[in-house]
Design brief:
Elements (H helix, E strand, L loop, with lengths): L3 E4 L4 H12 L5 E5 L7 E2 L2 E5 L10 E4 L3 H13 L3 E4 L15 H4 L9 E3 L5 H15 L1 E10 L6 H9 L19 H14 L5 E8 L6 E9 L5 H9 L4 E3 L5 H4 L5 E8 L6 E8 L3 H22 L1
Parallel strand pairs: 1-2, 1-5, 2-4, 5-6, 6-7, 8-9, 11-12
Antiparallel strand pairs: 3-4, 8-10, 10-13, 12-13
Helix pairs in contact: 1-9, 4-6
The structure holds NADP nicotinamide-adenine-dinucleotide phosphate.
NADP nicotinamide-adenine-dinucleotide phosphate binds next to helix 1, helix 2, helix 5 and helix 9.
């Protein structure tokens, strides 16, 4: 059994990560967070402070601590010999760092040099759906509008939503703005291109935070090179891994489930070869923790085959 560190264990992603690891039978799991949380308990585990020394000696380290802490801690854990899977944006677009959704580009995970990046929580379900459609008809362009839940901003923001009066709930945007677009919109574009290995793909995203606890939804409009009938797209997506057809996908239906839900697949009359669809996915599971675990499982399985 691999010795596993979950760094950021007290956070929204880290808590789900611990539950999923224990559910999947991993039994040598250790919880780490900042000095603030040292000594507390999460998922039945005692939390330790994440320091480079404390993180030495692990086979796998999962990081969900935010970019600044990842930039400090991840390179040292890599040097100490761990396979590191990082959920922050810090290394995702770095050349040479695989950015992996196992069902889409799992082979890239095996090219790692100690570090694999876990994509953005909206990018993961989007690429699960785009990949099979691209193989069927060739993607020409992608437009996406996201409706992202509050847990995507972390455990504290989620608690704030649960505590505030419903009358105060509103749409919001809480990402960095460069005067033209939010960094979240750039991430969806650039990460999608990297994962699909389509560096020139036209991708345009508009992101909004909605007052929903868990589960991100996305409306997607694609143009394909070849005509793609909605019925054919439905057949293709029915067979796609980690995708489940649902007449009207909502965050509530997706929360707590592993698959991305996809539906409302229809012709887009505003574009030649246009197709429109709607998806929803649990941002803490497949959008974050589950995808990271699957990435590590892929690498561990390849090691046991090689041994
Ligand atoms: N939530 C999502 O749906 C989602 C999806 C995709 C990606 N992500 C990314 O995943 C990361 C974590 O997100 P989250 O939503 O889980 O955030 P969160 O709920 O705010 O949790 C952050 C975690 O990081 C720990 N931490 C912060 N600074 C640290 C430091 N210097 N050293 C060690 N631990 C530190 C915190 O520990 P304390 O409790 O001790 O402060 C906490 O465990 C972020 O990079 C985020 O962008 C999140």
């Amino acid at each position: 059994m691999p010795r596993i560190a979950v760094v950021g264990a007290t956070g929204a992603v880290g808590r789900v990560m611990i539950d999923l690891l224990l559910e999947r039978g991993f039994d040598d799991v250790h919880a780490f967070a900042s000095a603030r949380s040292a000594g507390t308990q999460v998922g039945g585990l005692r939390v330790e402070e994440a320091t480079p020394d404390a993180l030495a000696g692990f086979d796998v380290c999962f990081f969900s601590v935010g970019s600044r802490a990842s930039r400090e801690l991840v390179p040292r854990a890599v040097r100490a010999g761990a396979l590191c899977v990082d959920k922050s944006e810090a290394f995702r677009l770095e050349p040479g760092v695989p950015l992996v959704v196992p069902e889409v580009n799992g082979g890239r995970a095996l090219e790692h040099d100690g570090l694999i990046a876990n994509p953005n929580c909206s990018t993961i379900p989007l690429t699960l759906v785009l990949k099979p459609l691209h193989e069927e008809a060739g993607l020409r362009s992608v437009r996406v509008a996201t409706y992202q839940s509050v847990s995507g901003k972390g455990a504290q923001r989620l608690q704030q939503l649960l505590d505030e009066p419903q009358a105060e709930h509103d749409l919001s945007v809480d990402w960095d703005y460069d005067g033209e677009e939010f960094d979240e919109e750039m991430k969806i574009r650039e990460e999608t291109r990297k994962i699909l290995e389509l560096p020139e793909l036209a991708v345009s995203a508009t992101c909004v935070r909605v007052p929903v606890p868990v589960g991100h939804a996305e409306s997607v409009w694609i143009e394909t090179q070849e005509p793609l009938a909605p019925a054919r797209a439905r057949d293709v997506l029915r067979k796609a891994p980690s995708v489940r057809l649902e007449d009207f996908p909502t965050p509530g239906k997706a929360a707590g489930r592993d698959d991305a839900l996809v539906g409302r697949i229809r012709r887009d009359p505003a574009a030649e070869n246009g197709l429109s669809l709607h998806l929803a996915c649990d941002n803490l599971r497949k959008g974050a923790a589950l995808n990271g675990i699957q990435v590590a499982e892929l690498v561990l399985a390849s090691r046991s085959v090689a041994a």
